[in-house]
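About this split. The held-out portion is used to measure sequence recovery: a designer receives only the structure tokens and must propose an amino acid at every position. Recovery is the fraction of positions where the proposal matches the reference. Here is one held-out target exactly as it appears in the evaluation file.
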């Protein structure tokens, strides 16, 4: 395992702790893939706390994050750069709206059709955008370095670690530390990171325009961020498919206004 830390010993000259690379770590370039959620944040903070070797932190900005997430990333960036570690913030090759309603498909049964439409359980193209953006960057990075990538998969989702289809060296610190998702969130809170309370409202802190969000989460956006909801309405015009299979955005607005007392019962 590459992430198990640097070998430590006490200097005979100074009596203080000194760190040195072990043979497996020598020549490697250590990178944290940061999504901004509780798990990847816990990985980064714990690596920093224990002075593990990290050369770079990489984050993909979709342009559709909650304002609290943007502040969270900004705080992490400041902490990382204070340690003289490179923080790289990647942008999507083309904006979210392009893929939603402008991209012309060149193959398959929908050849010639514009846009992917709103994502759903069967076609989570938005997630693929982030993955492909990371892959392009790592492809470039691996031409310059022998990289080791730290990924925030928790111990209670260990099955995700089995899906490694590329040749990159990957480490899963939370699995090795036996930290489940709940542990990761508590640890982040203990380090002073609380996402402005987002995890009190959202099961997973994703894009504000995610159709896979719970109804209670979408209601929170509608009630508290009218400018974000308006952005969703503008994007909705560009999608050939309605926001969700069970509700359009107009349907949701009506529901949120006329049946607010019942929304706490919904979980899907």
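Reference sequence for scoring:
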């Amino acid at each position: 395992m590459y992430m198990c830390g640097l070998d430590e010993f006490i200097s005979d000259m100074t009596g203080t702790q000194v760190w040195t690379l072990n043979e497996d770590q020598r020549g490697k370039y250590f990178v944290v893939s940061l999504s901004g959620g509780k798990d990847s944040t816990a990985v980064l903070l714990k690596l920093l706390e224990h002075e593990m070797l990290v050369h770079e932190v990489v984050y993909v900005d979709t342009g559709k994050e909650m304002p609290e997430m943007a502040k969270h990333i900004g705080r992490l960036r400041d902490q990382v750069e204070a340690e003289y570690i490179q923080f790289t913030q990647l942008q999507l090759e083309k904006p979210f709206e392009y893929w939603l309603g402008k991209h012309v498909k060149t193959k398959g049964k929908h050849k010639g059709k514009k846009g992917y439409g709103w994502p759903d359980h069967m076609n989570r193209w938005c997630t693929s955008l982030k993955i492909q953006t990371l892959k392009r960057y790592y492809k470039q990075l691996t031409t310059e370095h022998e990289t080791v990538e730290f990924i925030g998969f928790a111990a209670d989702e260990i099955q995700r670690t089995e899906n490694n289809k590329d040749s990159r060296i990957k480490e899963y610190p939370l699995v090795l530390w036996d930290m489940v998702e709940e542990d990761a969130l508590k640890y982040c809170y203990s380090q002073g990171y609380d996402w402005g309370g987002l995890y009190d409202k959202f099961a997973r802190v994703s894009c504000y325009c995610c159709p896979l969000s719970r109804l209670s989460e979408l209601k929170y956006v509608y009630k508290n961020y009218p400018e974000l909801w308006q952005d969703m309405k503008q994007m909705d015009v560009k999608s050939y498919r309605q926001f969700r299979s069970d509700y359009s955005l107009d349907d949701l607005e009506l529901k949120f206004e006329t049946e607010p007392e019942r929304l706490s019962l919904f979980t899907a």
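Annotator remark: The longest helix spans residues 125-142.
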